[in-house]
Design goal:
The chain has about 500 residues and is mainly alpha-helical. It has 18 helices and 7 strands. The strands form 3 sheets. A 3-stranded antiparallel sheet has the order 5-7-6, with helices on one face. The chain has a two-stranded parallel sheet with strand order 1-2. It starts with 10 loop residues before the first helix and ends in a 6-residue tail after the last helix.
Length: about 500
């Protein structure tokens, strides 16, 4: 109702109409229920009523179209659905629906019938009448007599050759209809309606007025403006994620499990030279996240996309609010740190998290279903592991080599270790000498953690530049996501 009724309608008026629809469809007992899936959610008949209610929430002024509202229902459920439609028609709502072989109790609730034969050719259009007397009189007039104990809805299909029995009569019922007086009356009624509409001078223009002088609202593709679509869809998407505790729990469990495993595996690392590599490996464990996050994000996106296809076909909202709400609903809460380096570490990990979420959504938007997307994940994970760098916390970390990590060598005669290595350290050489006054030198290859990762081409001074480059890749994910959700439509209907 928020998105499909005109934005100019007050919200309390929209909600009051929704309550009226709920009461009309007798859904008070399930008005606060979660629809869920077929196993744990609402029953089939209840889902049918919800679907009808969703269409009625748009407050259609001209016509409500329903495609096979009784399909998949038992006799009693089908009767209830038709009873609800009859109540709507009694309230002045015009309803057009397709229905296949209804029983006589359902058939007598309809006012008019459009009967088609193979090829979509019309063989009858007009009133049905009480006990189908108008319909049967038309067939009787053209040589087809319905037995008293037959269901008119099933018999008429056999009469025109659409059922199991052969066609009644030697003429095609489409030819009979084209030459009938009933068709001529229908054409006269259509001409009369056209002339009445044309004489009213009614044009759909924002500045034009109807016959009673009221301003005609400008026709738009969507009833609500874009910013209102974003607001409503964002709120609903967050609520949808909140109502999916299994999705949130698995995301939380995976992150906590990886943090515990990595933290316990590298617990109580010392400042020795060999443990520098272990520190890097501990942080590199974040490269495990892509396989987990992609496998979770893509099916979630695929489920929400199927809902988006249905609702965008009804012109509830456009692509941009959907894609934006999917991204924002996945965002973790921001956490601020007082320590600048700890804040950078968190910020980089947070960007990795957002990068993987948006990458998973971009892959899901570019693939027809979650299964195809999951098949692409191994390739993406391998590429990510091959080209990703490392985020280290080794800056200004003092390195203290253990005795078995020291390189031992003698100084030249007459020189101490300090004198011998002075030029090496003066030219920027890494490491340190344990005792400069001795002639048997004990050399440690690194004095601070920076010297360890400088050999990998990394520089602490470039950390913000590197973060900006990574953020550019993140922006490219947004671009691919919005592009895929806008131009790639895998809806089969």
């Amino acid at each position: 109702a928020d998105l499909r009724q005109p934005y100019s309608v007050p919200q309390d008026q929209k909600y009051a109409y929704v309550e009226e629809v709920i009461s009309l469809l007798e859904m008070e007992e399930i008005s606060d229920a979660v629809i869920g899936d077929a196993e744990t959610g609402l029953a089939v008949e209840q889902r049918k009523r919800v679907t009808i209610g969703v269409e009625l929430a748009a407050r259609p002024e001209l016509l409500l179209f329903l495609d096979e509202p009784t399909s998949g229902l038992d006799g009693q459920s089908a009767f209830n659905i038709v009873r609800f439609l009859r109540k709507l028609a009694g309230r002045g709502q015009c309803i057009l629906c397709t229905i296949h072989q209804p029983n006589s109790a359902l058939f007598e609730n309809f006012d008019r019938l459009l009967l088609l034969q193979r090829g979509g050719e019309c063989v009858y259009f007009g009133d049905i009448g009480r006990d189908a007397n108008v319909l049967l009189s038309y067939f009787r007039k053209n040589g087809a007599h319905c037995p008293p104990d037959a269901n008119p809805a099933e018999w008429m299909l056999d009469a025109v050759g659409a059922g199991m029995a052969p066609r009644i009569g030697d003429r095609d019922w489409g030819d009979i209809w084209r030459e009938s007086s009933e068709l001529a009356n229908v054409k006269d009624q259509i001409s009369q309606l056209k002339s009445e509409r044309g004489s009213g001078g009614h044009h759909n223009h924002p500045s034009s007025k109807g016959q009673a002088g009221e301003v005609v609202e400008e026709e738009k593709e969507y009833a609500a403006p874009l910013w209102h679509q974003i607001k409503v869809v964002q709120k609903r998407m967050h609520l949808s994620f909140w109502r999916s505790p299994d999705y949130g729990f698995t995301r939380l469990f995976n992150h906590v499990a990886i943090a515990l495993i990595a933290g316990l595996a590298y617990l109580q690392l010392s400042d020795s030279r060999s443990n520098l590599q272990s520190r890097v490996f501990a942080i590199f464990q974040i490269s495990v996240l892509p396989a987990l996050i992609l496998a979770q994000v893509e099916p979630k996106y695929d489920i929400q996309r199927s809902i988006f296809y249905r609702e965008t076909a009804a012109k509830a909202y456009s692509q941009l609010p959907f894609a934006l709400s999917m991204v924002v609903a996945e965002m973790p809460y921001s956490i601020f740190h007082e320590n600048e380096r700890a804040g950078y570490q968190f910020l980089m990990i947070l960007l990795v998290e957002i990068f993987l979420v948006t990458l998973g959504q971009a892959i899901a938007a570019a693939t027809p279903n979650a299964y195809i997307g999951l098949l692409l994940n191994p390739f993406v994970v391998v590429v990510f592991a091959m080209f990703c760098g490392v985020v280290t916390e080794l800056h200004d970390l003092p390195v203290v080599c253990t005795p078995n990590e020291l390189n031992t060598f003698p100084a030249p005669p007459g020189l101490s270790c300090g004198d011998y290595m002075a030029d090496f350290f003066a030219s920027g050489g890494p490491g340190y000498i344990v005792d400069n006054a001795t002639s048997m030198c004990e050399y440690c290859a690194y004095s601070v953690g920076d010297e360890f990762y400088e050999t990998l081409g990394l520089d602490f001074a470039n950390r913000w530049r590197d973060l900006g480059i990574f953020a550019a890749f993140l922006v490219s994910n947004f671009f691919l996501l919005f592009l895929g959700s806008r131009y790639l439509n895998f809806n089969r209907r």
